[in-house]
Amino acid sequence: MENTEYIKEAKKISRSAYAPYSGVKVGAILISEDGKAFEGCNIENASFGLTVCAERVALFKAVSEGKRKFSKIIIASEGQDVSPCGACRQVLSEFSPEMTVVWQKNGKTVSRTLRELLPERFDFKK
Ligand code: THU
What we know:
It is a single chain. With 126 residues, this protein is an alpha+beta fold. The chain has one domain (3-117): Cytidine Deaminase, domain 2, CATH 3.40.140. The protein is built from four helices and five strands. The protein has helices at 3-13, 54-64, 86-93, 114-117; strands at 27-32, 37-41, 70-76, 100-105, 108-113. A five-stranded mixed beta sheet has the order 2-1-3-4-5. The chain is globular and about 40 Å long. The mean pLDDT is 97. Tetrahydrodeoxyuridine is lined by residues 19, 22, 24, 26, 42, 44, 51, 53-55, 82, 84-85, 88.
């Protein structure tokens, strides 16, 4: 699928978001290296800090189904442009720091590697 089509799909997925506090509904599609798509939306909580972003919902679904390597993530909202927050960049980079990240900025579809979005990520060395 083309990135623009993925953006449209991610917007549809964002309608499932549970975001009564911020009103910001986000949808994510995470593609594993073997080509499977995992969908996620943000899920807020009355205890605000317990909110989980769309990207991490998609990632946790995928990892819990045995996937560890990802080629691409697409993020979108119908209300505003959204790029992945810092926490999600770190969590995604645990598995595939070279993956492509696609989102919309001022009506245009933008694509960067996660490495570009999170240079010098924290990595645990034993
Ligand atoms: N949000 C995401 O789902 N992904 C991001 O990368 C940025 C923020 C959600 C979390 C919260 O429910 C709402 O957007 C406002 O911060």
